[in-house]
Amino acid sequence: MDQLTNNDIDSLLQKAKTSGDKEDLATLWKAALNLPQWHFITKHTEKLEDRRPFIGVLDNQPWVFVFTDRQKAQEFGQSVKDGGFVDDKGSVMIISMDTHRAIDYVTALSSKGVFGVRINELNGWFSPIANLPAIINHVTAKD
Fold first, then answer.
1. What's the total number of domains in the chain?
2. I want to staple 102 with a disulfide (CB 3.0 to 4.6 A). Which of 67, 97, 116, 117 is the partner?
3. What is the pLDDT of residues 42-87, one digit of tens each?
């Protein structure tokens, strides 16, 4: 897949949600894994070096929030009232990482007690971090 757009990811997500087909979900994951970067939001802090990708708790489990593009990260950060993601200029601080580095980072969070990854929260999908290696193996085995 060459350079994907936000609309491509949204279309693949919609298709996977509508069909419920495992192959459509695999295609969505493959697209996300082949993006050049993943994006994380971070709480606004004075010191840049103190900023870390946001980990939130849902259903009593810690999740790392990942976004496939900066706009989705910005929208989510602005949607969380009093979440601490927006600076005084109305911007959300976003940390962008090379996707392979981001996958390594997310995978390592499992050993720190983080349960899962939520991709494009508001209209996205999720997975326990423990399932990521199997997902990656499944979608890359078809190359």
1. 1
2. 97
3. 987 777 777 889 999 999 999 999 999 999 999 999 999 888 898 8
